[in-house]
Structure prediction request, 239 residues.
Amino acid sequence: MPGTYTEAQIAATIDHAVLKPDFTRADVDRQLDIAAEWGVWSACVRPSDVAYAVNRLDGSGVRVCTVIGFPHGTTSTATKVAELRRAQEDGATEFDMVLHIGALRSGEDDYVRDDIAAVVEAAGPFVSKVILETSYLDQEQIARGSRLTEAGGATFVKTSTGFAGGGATVEHVRLMRESVSPGVQVKASGGVRGLDAAIAMLDAGATRLGTSATATILGELRARLTGEESSGAEDVSSY
Prediction:
């Protein structure tokens, strides 16, 4: 059984990912409708889809999140800030940025912190999440990246883009949770494709889940709680 989690509780942790580069408008519509149907926290969309998603989700209670410097994190700080400001103008209220992975691995901590801080400052009162891309990092780098995320003032530290050949692990979520103060939250993303995986991430300390498998996760939970067969849709991406 799924412990003490209710459907509403898990739905409130999900950023439903709508990020595949080959998605057509019809694909985007279908995914936004899934986000609205299940009442998730947000739909995380490509920057070019923000204004469209805001309009389509109007009145649903689902927020619109987008990605900054995605998926590699190697754009300049000024470019990341400009991307965020445009997304704000289009109506996004949460922003997931990829830090400069190479700079983190090189030990260029001041650059990494300042890159994060500039984006966080541009986000103002809105939620900012920093993606470490943990599949490229060792334990020390994950811990240091988490601390730099906190030093830069971000709301969340996040595991992965879901597009780098690896995703969230329980071990990495725990390490990230241990590396930051209670005021910084942890988002697990990449490979969270079923209810058991989602619960494992939440139990390890994550408070937000990035996934395209919303219907699968919540469908499985509904089925367990009601004893009915799950009708959740299949996962649609690597996220």
Observations:
- The mean pLDDT is 95.
